[in-house]
Prior knowledge:
The complex is a heterodimer.
Chain A: H1 3-19, H2 21-43, E1 49-50, E2 53-54, H3 55-86, H4 89-94, H5 99-128, H6 136-160, H7 164-180, H8 193-199, H9 203-216, H10 223-247
Chain B: E1 5-13, E2 19-28, E3 33-37, H1 44-52, E4 59-64, E5 67-68, H2 73-79, E6 80-83, H3 95-105, H4 112-121, H5 137-149, E7 155-159, H6 167-182, E8 186-191, H7 194-200, E9 203-208, E10 211-217, H8 218-225, E11 227-234, E12 251-253, E13 258-264, H9 272-281, E14 286-293, H10 296-305
Parallel strand pairs in B: 3-8, 3-9, 6-7, 7-8
Antiparallel strand pairs in B: 1-2, 1-4, 4-5, 9-10, 11-13, 11-14, 12-13
Helix pairs in contact in B: 3-5
Amino acid sequence: MNFEAVKAIYRFEMARTWRTLLQSIVSPVVSTSLYFVVFGAAIGSRITEVEGVSYGTFIVPGLVMLSVLTQSITNASFGIYFPKFIGTIYEILSAPVSYFEIVLGYVGAAATKSIILGLIILATAGLFVPLHIQHPVWMLLFLVLTSVTFSLFGFIIGIWADGFEKLQMIPMLIITPLTFLGGSFYSIGMLPQSWQTVALFNPVVYLISGFRWSFYEIADVSLSVSMGMTLSFLVICMTVVWWIFKSGYRLKS
Amino acid sequence: MSPIISVSGLSKTYASGFTALKSINLGIKPGEIFALLGPNGAGKTTLINIICGIANASSGEVLVDGHDIRRDYRTTRSLIGLVPQELHTDAFETVWATVSFSRGLFGKPKNPAHIEKVLKDLSLWDKKDSKIVTLSGGMKRRVMIAKALSHEPQILFLDEPTAGVDVELRKAMWDVVRTLRASGVTIILTTHYIEEAEEMADRVGVINRGEIILVEEKAALMQKLGQKRLKLHLQGKIDAVPTPLAAYNLELAGDGTELIYTYDTRSEHTGITSLLSDLRAAGIRFSDLDTTQSSLEEIFVSLVRA
């Protein structure tokens, strides 16, 4: 195991975060605060409670997930796409590092950033609404698993993308709508029966449901199903990344 | 002496169907400076990329210090430093950070003293805290070399190292390369500047259309393939080469005051003795003469055109 290489990639990526602090941390926190103002205050005044939890408090896990999902994908996809774009990928490919170590460095850094961001957003939420986390270990587990899984997904997008447009396409056109429709701001049970069935095809529903359960013990689907779906997506992403490196797809000619 | 790099039957065909390398066989001796010459698209960079792990070979085998580049990639890659043709750098990183990153990437623990030495050797020490984006093209090229040397490689690939670099900096880089060779580093150099190969290389390989067409000691190559030119400085001016001398294919130069005779050093009879006799018979006298050897560039051009 080339720990020095993993450390070098990880530190390099984390250094980029500190260099772009405004974009990496401040911007998502400001966006989330605005969500609280718009959804929590404006809409929350009309929807007082959801399943016994005040609306402002209810949306906290969904808002954290929204940021964690999009930032995991953005951080990881940009992290690997940028060396491809500027050509410095040659150094990674010619170094004595295994595929696993490359992924560990890039995905580890992207997931770390997302986890830090998720915790900052959680702390920010605490300024707006009273927070109580009933199962902090499960909350952390969901946060870490989601960050890692979607960082892996972002890594795949970064490898696949051959332009900045494609890099933005998946997060903007697929992930954000799925998150909004995945119960970030409402319970699936509030939808008509037919739409509840449709919603179950949205993988983000399971992530938000499990994450919300760790806060308030209320969920749209059972905890085991949420965890199972999260782990399934993790395995799928790992399989695709393994194939990418084995085949050299978009990395090696 | 067993080669430090051994390439056997190496072929590369891209997905587009273009065959960049056709069953290449090549051995690089430890400690030598090997110049790989070839026109654009000849396969130089493809060959380097395969050896360094950036591209996959279609078939064939490459051994670095006896290790297979696929099975023992950790060992082989840690022995190699690569300076690519293009200036690929992280624009917003400092010189120190990017060179240190390269060392870590190659599995070496931090060694500020070594990084300092490399930067000083390449006259980059006063720029160590500068962001790369603020450096000139020549400085960026040095940063690329510093990155390649950061992990103390035994083999250094320099792919067009002095492309776009001014004469002064080019000569400074030649000095760096010579110093590296003196410390035991094997250097493989691709270049368009034939004078670079002529100046520095121990051996020269010529690649064209994906095939190695020649590998030779530079001095032997120049002696074996080189043509010599005999220049005769005439005592008086002549308007044309006299008819009895037509068989020598003489070239009239210097506004009629010089005659140039080109001959092959490999042939048994150079024709110089008979030329001088025939000149005397034709009443042409000369005050001085000198000979010059064909340059490597002329040899290269003649090979790739063959």
